[in-house]
Amino acid sequence: MLHKIIEKRDLSPSAYALRLERNQFVFRPGQCVNLGLPGSGVNREYSTYSGTDDPYLEFLIKEVPVGTVSSALRKLEGGMEVELHGPYGSFVLQPEKIGNARFVFIGTGTGIAPFHSFVRSYPGLDYRLICGIRESNERYDAGDYDPERTVFCVSRENWEGYNGRVTDYLLENEVDPACIYYLCGNQKMIYSVYEILRNREVNGDRIFTEAFF
Ligand SMILES: Cc1cc2nc3c(=O)[nH]c(=O)nc-3n(C[C@H](O)[C@H](O)[C@H](O)COP(=O)(O)OP(=O)(O)OC[C@H]3O[C@@H](n4cnc5c(N)ncnc54)[C@H](O)[C@@H]3O)c2cc1C
Predict the structure, then answer these.
(1) Closest CA to 86 of 42, 51, 38, 48
(2) Which of 19, 144, 187, 204 has its CA at a distance of 20 to 30 angstroms from the CA of residue 11?
(3) Residue owning the nearest CA to atom 48 of ligand 1
(4) Residues 202 and 177 placed together within one structural domain of the fold
C-alpha cells in the first residue's frame, strides 16, 4: 500500500512525526506497521502514534545515527509516498478492560508512541504514563497527555520534574499490583522494569511488553 506524506514535524533534533494520508487504513491502537521507501524492499516496524478516529495516520520516529530506514524516511517531503504493510502485532488493550481497569504505561523515548495512540483513541481511559527520556526536550507532544496522570523521568539533565530513570521512579514509588502494565521501548529497560514489577507482586499476566530494539 502506498500512502502519501501529508507533513513531517520535527519534535527534537533526532525525532520526527510522519503524518500520512489514511486511505481507509484500519488498525487497533498499539499495533505496528512496516514502513519503507516504495519498491526498496527494505522496511522497519513502527507503532501507530495517531488515534483510530484521526483522519490521518501518524508515526513517531527517532532518526537512528547510520540507521537505514529512519534516516531515509526523514529525508522525504510532503507529497511523496511511503510503502506501508500491516497492521501487525498484539500490543493492544483488551476491549473488555478499557472502561474498568487502571492502566500504567511505561515507555522510553519513542516507546511512548503506542501510548499516544491509546490515549487519543480511548477518551476517559484510566491511565498513568511514566516515560523515560534523556532530556526534557524529548517530551514529544506532551500536551496530548493529562499532566495529572503523566510523569516524565529525565535522566541526563536537571529539570523541574523527576530526575532519574523510570526504574528509579518505580523503586521510589508505590506499585499497585491491581493495575495492568504496558511496557514499551528498549529491551534492557523492559527486562529491568519487568523484574521490579514482579518483585512488587504484579502478576506476569498483568504485564504486556513491546521491545523496539
Ligand atoms: C514492534 C516494533 C515497533 C517499533 N516502533 C517504533 C516506533 O514507533 N518508533 C521508532 O522510532 N522506532 C520503532 N521501532 C524501531 C524501528 O523498527 C527500527 O529498528 C529503527 O527505526 C531503526 O531502523 P533503521 O533502519 O533506521 O536502523 P538500522 O539500520 O536497522 O539499525 C541501526 C542500529 O540501531 C539500533 N536501533 C534501532 N532502534 C533504535 C533506537 N530507537 N535507538 C537507538 N538505537 C536503535 C539497531 O539495533 C541497530 O543496531 C520499532 C521496532 C519494533 C520491533
Answers:
(1) 48
(2) 187
(3) 67
(4) yes
The CB of 48 under 6 Å from ligand 1? The reply is no
Query: Atom 21 (ligand 1): residue with closest C-alpha?
Result: 70
Q: What is the CATH number of the domain that holds 203?
A: 3.40.50.80
Specify the CATH number for the domain of residue 42: 2.40.30.10
Q: Which domain holds residue 124?
A: 95-211
| Predicted TM-score of the model (pTM) | 0.97
Per-residue pLDDT of the chain (213 residues; tens, 9 = 90+): 999 999 999 999 999 999 999 999 999 999 999 999 999 999 999 999 999 999 999 999 999 989 999 999 999 999 999 999 999 999 999 999 999 999 999 999 999 999 999 999 999 999 999 999 999 999 999 999 999 999 999 999 999 999 999 999 999 999 999 999 999 999 999 999 999 999 999 999 999 999 999
- Taking the centre of ligand 1 as the mean of its atom positions, its distance from the CA of residue 159, in whole angstroms, is 27
Q: What is the spatial distance between Cα 62 and Cα 45, in angstroms, rounded to a whole number?
A: 12
Pick the atom of ligand 1 nearest to 68's CA.
Answer: 25
Strand partners, 129: 105, 150
Give every CB contact of residue 182 below 8 A, 6+ residues apart in sequence: 30, 91, 93, 103, 104, 105, 106, 114, 115, 208, 209, 210
In angstroms, what is the span from residue 207 Cα to ligand 1's centroid?
Answer: 22
Residue 86 Cβ contacting ligand 1 at under 6 Å: no
Q: Cβ(43) to ligand 1 under 6 A?
A: no
